TrEMBL record, chains A, B, C, D:
InterPro entries for this protein: L-rhamnose_isomerase, Xyl_isomerase-like_sf, Xyl_isomerase-like_TIM-brl
PANTHER family: L-RHAMNOSE ISOMERASE
Protein name: Sugar isomerase
Location of the Xylose isomerase-like TIM barrel domain: 100-285
Organism of provenance: Jiulongibacter sediminis
Gene3D superfamilies in alphabetical order: Divalent-metal-dependent TIM barrel enzymes
Keywords, comma-separated and alphabetical: Isomerase, Manganese, Metal-binding
Example of a GO MF term: metal ion binding
Amino acid sequence: MKLNKEDIQEYNEGLLEFHQEKLAFTKKEVTNAEAIIQKLVDFQIAIPSWALGTGGTRFGRFSGGGEPATLEQKIEDVGLLHALNQASGAISLHIPWDIPKDAAAIKALADEHGLVFDAVNSNTFQDQADQELSYKFGSLQHTDPAVRQQAVDHNIEVIKHGIELGSKSLTVWLSDGSCFPGQINFKKAFENTLESLQKIYAELPEDWKMFVEYKAFEPNFYSMTVGDWGQSLLFANKLGPKAKTLVDLGHHLPNANIEQIVSLLMMEGKLAGFHFNDSKYADDDLTAGAIKPYQLFLIFNELVAGMDAAGMNHAKDLGWMIDASHNVKDPLEDLLQSVEAIMLAYAQALSVDKEALENAREDNDVVVAQNILQNAFRTDMRALVAEARLRAGGALNPIGFYRKMDVRDKLIRERGSKTVATGL
Amino acid sequence: MKLNKEDIQEYNEGLLEFHQEKLAFTKKEVTNAEAIIQKLVDFQIAIPSWALGTGGTRFGRFSGGGEPATLEQKIEDVGLLHALNQASGAISLHIPWDIPKDAAAIKALADEHGLVFDAVNSNTFQDQADQELSYKFGSLQHTDPAVRQQAVDHNIEVIKHGIELGSKSLTVWLSDGSCFPGQINFKKAFENTLESLQKIYAELPEDWKMFVEYKAFEPNFYSMTVGDWGQSLLFANKLGPKAKTLVDLGHHLPNANIEQIVSLLMMEGKLAGFHFNDSKYADDDLTAGAIKPYQLFLIFNELVAGMDAAGMNHAKDLGWMIDASHNVKDPLEDLLQSVEAIMLAYAQALSVDKEALENAREDNDVVVAQNILQNAFRTDMRALVAEARLRAGGALNPIGFYRKMDVRDKLIRERGSKTVATGL
Amino acid sequence: MKLNKEDIQEYNEGLLEFHQEKLAFTKKEVTNAEAIIQKLVDFQIAIPSWALGTGGTRFGRFSGGGEPATLEQKIEDVGLLHALNQASGAISLHIPWDIPKDAAAIKALADEHGLVFDAVNSNTFQDQADQELSYKFGSLQHTDPAVRQQAVDHNIEVIKHGIELGSKSLTVWLSDGSCFPGQINFKKAFENTLESLQKIYAELPEDWKMFVEYKAFEPNFYSMTVGDWGQSLLFANKLGPKAKTLVDLGHHLPNANIEQIVSLLMMEGKLAGFHFNDSKYADDDLTAGAIKPYQLFLIFNELVAGMDAAGMNHAKDLGWMIDASHNVKDPLEDLLQSVEAIMLAYAQALSVDKEALENAREDNDVVVAQNILQNAFRTDMRALVAEARLRAGGALNPIGFYRKMDVRDKLIRERGSKTVATGL
Amino acid sequence: MKLNKEDIQEYNEGLLEFHQEKLAFTKKEVTNAEAIIQKLVDFQIAIPSWALGTGGTRFGRFSGGGEPATLEQKIEDVGLLHALNQASGAISLHIPWDIPKDAAAIKALADEHGLVFDAVNSNTFQDQADQELSYKFGSLQHTDPAVRQQAVDHNIEVIKHGIELGSKSLTVWLSDGSCFPGQINFKKAFENTLESLQKIYAELPEDWKMFVEYKAFEPNFYSMTVGDWGQSLLFANKLGPKAKTLVDLGHHLPNANIEQIVSLLMMEGKLAGFHFNDSKYADDDLTAGAIKPYQLFLIFNELVAGMDAAGMNHAKDLGWMIDASHNVKDPLEDLLQSVEAIMLAYAQALSVDKEALENAREDNDVVVAQNILQNAFRTDMRALVAEARLRAGGALNPIGFYRKMDVRDKLIRERGSKTVATGL
């Protein structure tokens, strides 16, 4: 299904008066409100194809209805999101869950929804039905060169699919590691992985990047071969300028200072981008901003500072993607909540008076430095985010409109209540 | 020194116009704004006497200047805070750091500053110079009955000081525990502690409460004899109705869901109150709301719901105290930041539409339930908190006024730059 | 398949000489070696029916071959384990994965393998194909009384199956909780759960126990309604004397002092028993003793002390079960490793000189107290554990014999390489 | 005081018979026992001068008696340790706590006790009484170049002291960081620190190393400027070949896989060495091996493998030091316990059959790989460690002899019961 521009407009009209009053007040408080709105309009967050279905845990999955069963339906779903918020204009495909049989047709369909193709993702953390060798003991790290080669070939295949669709980056997340002390030789595992990544890197087109994602634990529970930003950076440096480190918020040990990691990776010119989500305990993959919204803001504060210092284009020079699991919510509503939280954090970060902040830092005036960040965070930016949506043709209240239009019911009627999307 | 009402008023006038505009807009968004303001006016957060000096760690302390050297000066400092924010109308004394030699005079002095005496705190985690037996291996848990009796006697002494000053509760925080496997018999340590607490409990006046504080670790690094809410509740239940569990936000294992603990303790009628602070790693004792402001809001959301369900008086029926350490900030400014963050969280919690929230919960509408809380949190309540201060005679911007009046410089001139307050 | 006693005996003979030399030396070091051996012979650890297949994570499962496809085959597998180590003489069934169609025949089969039926386990954390109402938003806590009743009925059904088989306890592990702030009312969730548990409790036979298991997180990622030992104990106390708290080693927040929890639960007469496994990060469900063997010993040290103090029968008065997941190992080999680690920890705990330990504690001689525990832990108890197996008719080296007999290959030939056992 | 060789010998004689029996049995189990003994004889662990007094926390310190008040007495204490265990033949000084006034005399005194001088340690985490500028807001990272220069000059001064004493390395542990979001600019803090370190590095003698220590948190509670191994490695790589990363076991986030970090640092040729201690919660600075002895073994397993692969001399090519705090034990006894635990872990690691382990890894035989490590760990190596001490002239049971000789009482009589050693 597709949402109708006119319906959105009509819906917005009912909310417009209060919105404009709120916007007017916000503009009084936020001196660079117009600049922020423009940046918000430009900012797009990719939706991964595997996040459109209900997620689950090893204990089970409680499917919802109307999940997309095909790549076409996944694109349709992202199209719905983008129509609602005008901020989800990209889709990130996962191979082999989403192999496009007719790339041209898929590209045309995406284009119809205003979507481009973000990073393509390989999968060597599962065995596929037709797969010759198993990844039970790892893929790019495997002691058996034949397994490594199979995993390398798969990644090269993924790059090819990406080229056809117009992607410009390959995300490599490896579950490689070990579950027990003694199981692997850490050094050999690193070296095997590096050699495998080098083979993949060699096949990257000139204008592509390789995103090396790290994760502290799960599904391996003793060691991960790309386990933290230090390891990822080691790989990225040894690989070359196209390789960068991808940060997923849930992939850290408890209490890690992620914003500092971001800052250092930007200093090194090695930050690839982000997988947004939130977590309380482990890689919980909850809605972005649902647990620690201030942390999300602090991360954006570093991102904006780092991008501005390097003269980067906020919207284009880093990869932005949601990577969450939707176990107890309608996935589309959940994604809308994530995007909203990300946009708010970005807007707050854009409102920080950087000069005043640097002055406070130079003076070691900790009270004022804290106040500057807290004031930005405490300022209500919802009107600016809504205005950006409004200007771009989206809904003032995306979830409100989504519910008003009974979108999920319509999807269930179209697709059935028992479909299960590929993914986690 | 004392702050002048007229100076405050004059200062406020310069900020009034924007404040009133912001207040007016907030009232449009927050339907129960007036009720919230009234509750904020009534809400008082006690300041512990040991938090008025610069704090430190085992690695050192970098003192600031003008720290209060006497109990009288500590009362003066809390008086300054209260004059500024009209929300710090109570002081919590620590014995033996703050033994009042002339209780009547001290009470009169406090009264002059509009202050009352909150919970009194005993200290059996340090040895005092004149102390007969050492607490090196614990106090109320000690294997030696003579040490236990000494610690019991000290607590009874603290109660007596409290009675003289008008306090109504004794806070017992024990560092008792062990540093190494094998060091103590957990069961005997519990039983000794219980017996000791029972002796203290027996001396509590009719209208007093005993606050049993728990802590996961530090200064003992293997076990703590009152280590979590479950242990504290066991003690409180065995002691009787006057004994309740005190929650300090920094006293938990990583990732603990403190708001759920709060809810269950209220269900059991056993929540004593709070020690506010914030932390990223351990018992960091940072400014309230400085790291996880959303968690602070979620806790208040439970507190308000629980107090309302039980028909409790928000301002009086639980104990509210800041317990932070000020290692890199002026302690008075830091305390002002803590109070502001607490007030904001309280105001946000008061704005939650409880009926709508319960309806969403009944329907398992997770998206709406999350939205209700996030909307309350995202709404800018600063104008309501400022208005409450204004109405009560405080400063619209307490730190701004504090700096304008050069309070710290004046304190340094009065007290010297090398004074060191008792405390941590 | 079944293992042949004569083959085991013949195998043992080749290892006997060195075993006896080692045993003789150990007896010189461990004064109560004979008593320990006898206790080891008596000690049996139940095997859960769901642990006989390859486990997995939400990211995938890499099945091994020869997994048991039926309850009969699961009993056969536990029979193999028991024949090898003579310490796995009980099986714990999970309903609905293991519904016995003909209870008498199943009992007879178990008896043939020398097995009895341990606690029965209910499952309300997944939806079954034929289930009327969903547990997506919880079971015993659910806002809808019909869902609660369905879950209650299921538990009562499980009790009935248990009665038929000779079980004496019901383990209730609830995944109930919430994934997002706001999602549930903690108090109502607790009260609903309590009411539901009370209905189940009412159906327990006179000589049964109810084991209330707690877990800190997963599969819910914001709150768990039975989240820690304090909550479980609250439920158990409100339910009555048959209800006790079950401890699973992996179900805690980081760094929890589990041995202290055990000690306190025993003090309260409320420890139900154990689910053994090990973990580094979360509920990793690794082989017992694989990561923190000293912690396992410290837990047994408390268990032995507590059981002896209460005059309990080590082998019978608490529930002992392994609850691990075998993602990268042959499940049977992994279980043998777990049992070995548990037996070693138990033997070490039995060797502790309790009088000397209590004396050191009374004297606050921390150095000696630590030494007593470390000496017990550093003493090699493998010969005593092996001797216990030998006397009971098991294999001196169970994994050695298992591999020598090509058990897994035979199971694959019998059952096929693509069978997948029910479980996680 | 000094211990008498003859007294030690006499004491050993009483223990010799059982020792030799145990040694004989151990040699039957451990094929390379003789080689292990020789390596143990050669292995020396440096004692930091600040670990000879009772440690404390921010909540207090409970001093013991007879603490060394001068550098001479500290050397005497390490001499006592070395006489007892013949494994503590080096002392690591801390400036300014231990400034040698007459370096030649101090060297001669150390030589008399058979001691050499290990790494020298600078201190910019505290302000000294006579210090011009404060380190309240950092030292090498400070926004003020004058503070940075002061800290650089201090480090250069420390190098000079080290040269006089024969040290060959400088350990730089920085507490630099921030307590609150916003307080510092991460990038500038890194760059300032790097520039400062470069100035210090430039002053290193040709044959010296700089050990860059990292720490996750404390005394700063929001960020640390050298916070993890990744950051330390960044600094070390930018500095040059003399700079390496120092690992302190307590300086990590919860659950970090330290043995993997060790392996990767060795792979990069950038491991400096170790600060040994143990911890349950944070930087608890407990006795090495007191909480997680298996982890200690796993670390040594990587160390031995890595050193052997690189053809390194175990005893000389990495820095080995204890860095613990002794809050509830006699510091000398505590250090003896730490050295014993370290030696046992080292001996166990030396006994691992590396070829068998690598074969199991190549085959992904996780069960066997785990067994190889667990068997090494479960084997009782105490006789080998004791034999190494015996051969080198130490006591078979150092703590037993220490107590028999009433060393602490004698120290108290010599030095008094109220001395307090400099340190933490």
